Structures are given as C-alpha cells and as structure tokens.
Amino acid sequence: MKDEKALVILSGGQDSTTCLYWALKEYKEVEAITFDYGQMHRNEIVSASKICSMVKVPHEIVFIEGTLIGGTLLDKPVEGRGENIAPSWVPLRNALFLTIASNRAIVKGVKTLVIGVNSRDYSGYPDCRISFISAFEDMVFYGAEYPLLIEKPLINMTKKDIVLFAKGLLGCWEALAYTLTCYKGEYPPCGECAACKIRAKGFKEAGFPDPLIERSKNE
Amino acid sequence: MKDEKALVILSGGQDSTTCLYWALKEYKEVEAITFDYGQMHRNEIVSASKICSMVKVPHEIVFIEGTLIGGTLLDKPVEGRGENIAPSWVPLRNALFLTIASNRAIVKGVKTLVIGVNSRDYSGYPDCRISFISAFEDMVFYGAEYPLLIEKPLINMTKKDIVLFAKGLLGCWEALAYTLTCYKGEYPPCGECAACKIRAKGFKEAGFPDPLIERSKNE
Q1: Please, what are the averages of pLDDT over each run of 10 residues along chain B (219 residues)?
Q2: What CATH code is assigned to A2-180?
Q3: What is the pTM of this model?
Q4: Which one of A142, A149, A150, A155 would you mutate to disrupt binding with B, by most B Cβ within 10 Å of its Cβ?
C-alpha cells in the first residue's frame, strides 16, 4: 500500500466503483469526485454518494452547467471528425472532467488520479485510450509543473476481467449491488438498454450473478 | 489570408484584442469566445462584447461557475508546486478555457484556435508557454482524433513588440481604446495597479500614446 492519497473519479457505475475499491487497497488515503453534468441517468450520483458513505470516503460532487461542453455527431455531423468515433461521444468531456479533477489534485497536493476508462472493447471513445491519458499527463506537467500520475487499472480488461477483478477486492462485490449502469437510470435495471446488456454479459462470462440483480430480487 | 475559420479566445484586454485583429487579417472567418468566470475586472467582458460588435464578429460568452476550478498558493501553499509559479496562478485555468474552446471548435469543425498567451516576460504562469500549448494540442489530437492548431502570435513578443504589432493591424489601434487591462476594472484606468503599469511601459517604449488613455482624456 502506498503511503499517499489518491483521488478517484467516481461516476457511480460498475467500472469506477471497482476503481474506488482498487484505490482503497493500494493507497493509504482515498477521496472521490463525481460530476453532475446533467446526465440522463442522474441516479448514478446517488449511487456514488451511497458507495462513498459505505467506505467513509470524502466525496465532492461538482456541478457542471450542461451548456459548458457539448455537441455530438447526433446533433450535427462534422467533416474531419474521426470515422471511428461514436455518434454519442461528446468532444473533450473526459478532458473537462480530468482538468477539474487535476485542479483539485494540485490544490490538495494529491499526486494520483484514478479513472475507470477502458479501451479493450473500443467503442468509438478516443478519450478512453492510453494515448489520451498519457497526453493529458504531459499537458498537466507542462501546464502546471506538476507530476500527476493518472492510474487506469481497467484500461486493458474485458468486461469479464473487470468482474473477476472486482471479486478479488475486499468489499467491492457488496458495493456493486448499489452501482448504477442502466442508461435509463432504472432500479431494478431495465435489462434491455445497451449498458445493461454489456454489464450482464460480463457477469455471465465471469460465471457470477450480478450483486445488483440479486439485491433487486431480494428487496 | 487562409480560407478557413479561426476561433479567438478574447478576454477583452490588450493582448487578446490584438490577436483578434491579427486573426481578422489572417483568416476568412473569425469568431470569438469569452469566459465569464467571476474575474474581478468583469468589465473586461463588456470590452470584449464592444470590440466584437465593432468588427461584427460572432461572440459567445461562456459562464463558468466560480467553484468549478480554483485554488491558489495565496489560499494555501502546497508542497511540490513549482517554486517559480506565481502565487496568484490558478492551476489549469487556461487548460479549462482551452478545453471548452476546443470543444466548440471541434463541434463547429473549426481547425484553429487563437490565444494571446505570452511567455517573454515569464511571470510564473507555466500555462503561458509553448511547451504547454504544444502538449495541449497533442492531448486534443489523442483525445478527440482532431488536428487542432493553436495559434499564439504574441508568444515571444515583449510588451513593446505587442504595441508595435497592433499598430500595423488594420483597425486594431482604434479598438485598443476600448480594451480593459486595469486589475481594478476602472475606466479611466487607475494607472497604479501592476497591469496598468506594465501596459503603460509597453506604450512608452514603443513611443506611442495609449489609445485608451487618449480616449479617456477626450471624453
């Protein structure tokens, strides 16, 4: 365990919650930051708060005006935008989140951010890849003279790998019962949106029932 | 002149106004973006609007919640923060502005941003240097698969150079009469704050009276 503090970017979903528990194992002190940017599935924020309370992690929720950053190819196709980019991708939204989180880290003297990005099943989000995270670290280094490390423990894992990884992290499995993945923000999860299906596939391949589904059956 | 559009980050001060007029000379189409982030000298924003009206440049003013990014060494010294950094510097504020401006550029298909940063008289702002701007361009390239160019025409100029440069740009001299530099946001400018003194020195060394001062004498 490192005798340092880490700041985890926590959405309240499966991946970032797994990262939080990884950080609790790896770092002496952990804090979390969540962005309220008008996401459709705003119950994520409730999940993030609940999970932080469970592990007594200090938690900042940052409100971001919906107009601050936006625009997708769904709104208007743009010439020159990469052909492999998902139509729902918002240009530089991850950069915005990382910039604000890095500001907090620098102000507090925290040297490590943790983010749950994953590029294994590349689905058209260029800012979920190692090359972007490395370039972001460089930008902070030159722009703030600050050696910030951005940890991304899930970057190369499949959804199955992430489930098995969570199984090995003390307390994480129980916390997954309170995460929110469903695009519709429903509990019990709708089971039909793309996010629900990808999550279900990961648990099925890993051979374990999803604690979230188990909880919804028992309540 | 390039048959392209450029987006200018315009504060309403002398440097960014000079950049706006440079862009009007260099690019077929020009737009401007200004950030309202609770700056003390908020009259800057009025100056920016006035100048954009003078040249009929489309102008977006983006409101940024004051709590979104903050923290200076004046609030609390932090171990590990570069020793050459100015106490008043806000970590990654320029990165935040550039991220939002880059988002706008990508959404509109604009390939060039223009910013009035200047590192000649390095005064403890690491995010006013070429190394930062280059790292930021790389971050956008990897994070958005977008080849954004960030032009910084004043980067190596002295304040005297900037005055002489403005003198050669059609219409710029007249516009400088409406810029705001004074930290106190006063018109006529207080003449006593650090910003007023640096501005006055540049005009004095260039051998021309400041159009802003001339205007205030004549009104």
Answers
A1: 97 97 98 92 92 98 89 62 74 96 95 94 82 98 96 96 97 97 92 94 98 94
A2: 3.40.50.620
A3: 0.94
A4: A142
